[in-house]
What does this fold into?
Amino acid sequence: MDQAGWNKRYAQREFVWSLTPNQTVVTETAPLTPATALNLACGEGRNAVWLAEQGWQVSAVDYAKTGLDKARRLAAARGVAVDWILADVIEYPPSPATFALVLIAYLHIPAHQREQLIHNACQALQAGGTLLYIGHDLSNIEHGWGGPQDPAVLCTPQDIVNLLPDFTIEKAEIFERPVTQEPGHGKPGEAGAIALDMLVRALKPAG
It folds into this structure.
């Protein structure tokens, strides 16, 4: 879906997704010490707002203005500050060596754009910083539920690991996610449907 499509989707109702953070984001970032964080493709801002509530100093980037407008309202309602940035994450040049955490969650784009995105994310990380990448796994098309059905925009954990040759890979795995546990996924009568998601958590080399 392009920029116009996401703007239209976010404008259709108050919130497409849950007001609570993605549970994998919570699980994978909870052990980290809050510092500076960059959330690329933040959408309606639920993960960025949650990170700010935990004490992170968050910058969040998305090209859908309607999504960012809702993200600002959510942050204001929760009493937290986030630096919201309207930009295409593929073209946006984040400040180098600035962030202790870079989060990319459920951004599905072609391989050449994904490579540029990961390059930008790596540049933005401080030495010893954490990259967290979460999305639908390529196997979800055949064996899971929902999500993009175009294999050109999906990948596997190994595809991301291959773009991080110098990083320490802490996790690179596929996991099952009940789609009905979060709004925006599933429809009435689809209880028990499972999506196959993937995550990579990696540390940038120190020094």
Summary: The longest helix spans residues 65-78.
